[in-house]
Amino acid sequence: MEPRLFLLLALASAPAVFCATNAQDDAALRDVMSQWTNYPSSWNSGDPCGGWDGVMCVDGRVTSLRLSSVNLAGTLSTSIGQLSQLVFLDLSFNKDLGGPLPGQIGNLQQLTTLILAGCTFNGEIPTEFGNLQELWFLALNSNQFTGGIPPSIGLLSKLFWLDLADNQLTGAIPVSTSTSPGLNQLVNTKHFHFNKNKLTGTLDGLFSSKMTLLHILFDSNQLSGLIPDELGGITTLEVLRLDRNSFVGAIPATIGNLVKLNELNLASNKLTGSVPDLSNLTNLNVVSIASGQLSGQVPNGLFTLPQLQQVVLNNNQFNGTLEMTGNISSQLQTVNLMDNQIVSANVSVTSYKNTLLLAGNLLCAEQDPTSKPYCSKQQQNGAPYISSTAQCGSARSCSGNQNLDPSSCGCAFSYNGKMVFRAPFFTDLTSGGPFQLLESTMSAQLQLRPGSVYLSDIHFDSDSYLQVQVKLFPTSGTAFNLSELIRIGFDLSNQAYKPPKNFGPYFFIADPYAPLSGAVAGKKSKMSTGAIAGIAVAGGLLVIALIFTSIFALRQKRRARQLKDRADPFGSWSAGQKDNGGAPQLKGARFFSFDELKNCTTNFSDSHEIGSGGYGKVYRGTLVDGTRVAIKRAQPNSMQGAVEFKNEIELLSRVHHRNLVSLIGFCYEQGEQMLVYEYISNGTLRENLAGKSLKSKLTIASMNLIAYFLSPFRLNC
Ligand SMILES: *[C@@H]1O[C@H](CO)[C@@H](O)[C@H](O)[C@H]1NC(C)=O
Ligand SMILES: *[C@@H]1O[C@H](CO)[C@@H](O)[C@H](O)[C@H]1NC(C)=O
Ligand SMILES: *[C@@H]1O[C@H](CO)[C@@H](O)[C@H](O)[C@H]1NC(C)=O
Ligand SMILES: *[C@@H]1O[C@H](CO)[C@@H](O)[C@H](O)[C@H]1NC(C)=O
Ligand SMILES: *[C@@H]1O[C@H](CO)[C@@H](O)[C@H](O)[C@H]1NC(C)=O
Fold it and tell me: If you placed Cys at 345, which of 233, 322, 329, 645 could pair as Cys (CB 3.0 to 4.6 Å)?
C-alpha cells in the first residue's frame, strides 16, 4: 500500500463539517490555555467553538467561558482581554488558579458577569474594571486580593452584585469626589458584600436614600467612626451587618425606618447609648448588638416584633429591670442578655417559655430564687440537623473518596462544598424543616435526582455565619461529567440557585472534585493545533511505516494463534505470573474496569456506537474527568490470547507521537478485551484543515491514516 494514496483518500473523503472560531478569539484562547494546566481534555484538540468544554460561541465569537470547579491551575493571561465578545467569565472554585488579575479584563466591553470566587488570585483589583460598562455581576470573593477597592468600581452603573468578601483588602471604601468616582454612585446595586477584609476609615458620604441596596455586609473589617444617619434612608435594606468593626457612638434612630430589615447585626463594636425604637421593623428576625457599651433599659417593645427569633445583647451595660411581658413574639427562641447590669426581671412565663440567658447580671449575683432558671450559662440545644441515610441501612458505607448517595444508596463521587449563609433569618439548627427545604430546592433547581443532596456539619461559625457541608450526587454513573460540574458550579457561583428566603444571602465554595484531582489530572498533554502544524511530515511518515509494519506483523501472528488464557487472564496478570510475562509494561496507558467503560458508554448503547468491523465495535464515551475516548470492544470470536493482547497494549502504549491517536488504556476483565483511545472525531480533525498550511494538512491527514491502521474500523462520525 502506498501511503500517499491513503493521504489523498483521507482528504477526499472529508465531509464539510466546519465550525470556525474567529482567528483573534482562537489565538487569545490558546494563549490563555497556555498558562493553565488541568484544563479540560477536550481543549487538547479541535476548534474552541466546536466542542471545547465550557466554551460557548455565537457566530464563531467566544461569548462565554464557564470553567467552575474543574481544578484549573495556573494564572490568567493578559490575552483574556482579546476575547472582545465575552459576556460571561466564570472561573470560580479553582483553588490553584491565581496570580494577579490582568488589567486587560477591562477591555471586555460586553462582559456582564465576572466570577472568580474561591480561587487564589492576589495583588490589586485592577482599576480598569471600571471600564466594564455592562457589568452586572462581580464576584471576587474568597481570594487573596490586597490593596484598596478601586474607586472606578463606582462607574459600574449596571452593577447588581458586588462581592469582594474574604480577601485582604485595605483602605477606605471609596466615596466620590470632584475628581474621582466612588461607590456612593452605585445606586442600582443590591449587594455590597465586603465582609472579612481589612477595610478602614469611616462610612461618611457612602450612603444615600437614592440607593436600593438589599444587603450591606461589612462585618469583620476595621471600619470606624459613627454609623451614618443616611443609612436609615435605604428603606429597601433587608440585611445590615456592621459587626466586628470599630464603630463608635450611638446607633442612629433612623435605623428604625428600615422596615424591611430581617437581620440587624451591630455586634462587637464600641457603640454606646441605648437601643433605638425598632417597633416599626416588623420583619426583623435577628437582632444582635452584643459586645458593645450599650446602656439603659432593654426596650420591652423589642420582644413583641412578630417575626423576631433571636435577640443577642450580651456583654453590654444594660441596667434596670428587664420587662418581658405582654404579647411576646411566638417565634422568639433565644434572648441572650448575659454579662450586663440588669438588677431584676419581670418575665411573663405564660407568654415566653424559651431560652432566656441572664447569667453575669446583678440579679443572678443576688441569689434571688425566682431568677434561678435564667442564671445558667448553658443554652440547652439539641443536635443540629443532618441529612438521613437511614433508608440505606446502617451497615452501608463507601470506600475511598466516594460517598453514600442517600437517593440511590449507592456509592459515588459527590460534588462537595461549603455553603455559607451570611445572615440567616433563623437560629434553630435542630429543626429539620428549613434544611429539608434546602435539600429539595437544591436538587430541583440544580436538576439533580430528588433526595440526592446530603447536608451535614451544620453550625454557626465564629463569624456568626451558618455553615452547611453540602454533598451533591450525580444522576447517572458514579461521577459528574465535566459539563455537569461546570453547570452546577456556575449555578452556585452566580446565585442562580436560590435557597428559601429565610436562609438569606449565601456563598458557596466547592472542594476540589476528587475524580479530577490526582491520577487523571497529570496526564493531559498540552498539544495544540500550533504544535501539530509544526510537526515535520517526514517524521510522521516514518512513524506510519513503523506502526504499520508492527501492527501488521502482530495481526498475522495473532490469527495463527489459538484463543487460550481466556478463563482468567487478568487474574494471572495481576498475580504477575511469569508464564505470560506478568502485568503489561505500560507507558501512560492505564487499566479500566469493565464497569467504568460500561458507565461511560451508557451500557454500550447503540447511540454511543461510532463504528464496527470484524474485530468488534467502537464506542464513543466520556471518562469521569471529561476525556473523550473511543473504546474498541472485541467480539468473542476475535479475542486475542492474553500474551498477544498484552503485547499489543505494550506496543501501542509505547508509541507516543504527536501525530498519533494515543492509547489511554485498556480493559481486560469479565471476559472482555477493550482498548481505550483518545477520541479525535473526523470532524475535529477536519476543522483544522481549512486555512492551515499544506504541511499541517499533511500532518493531520497522516493522523487519520494512523488511526486507520491502528484500528480495523473507520470512525464514521
Ligand atoms: C412608625 O411608623 C409610623 C407610621 O408610619 C410612624 O408614624 C412612626 O413615627 C414610626 N415610628 C418610628 C419610631 O419610627
Ligand atoms: C442605667 O444606665 C443609664 C445610662 O448609663 C443611667 O443614666 C442610669 O442611671 C442607669 N440606671 C440605673 C438604675 O443604674
Ligand atoms: C399578638 O401578636 C400576634 C402576632 O404576633 C397577633 O396576631 C395578635 O393579635 C397579638 N395579640 C395581641 C393581644 O395583641
Ligand atoms: C410585671 O409586668 C406586668 C405587666 O406589665 C405588671 O402588671 C406587673 O406589675 C409587673 N410586676 C412587677 C413585679 O414589676
Ligand atoms: C453529562 O451528564 C449528563 C447527565 O448525566 C448528560 O445528560 C450529558 O449528556 C453528559 N454530557 C456528556 C458530554 O457526556
Answer: 322
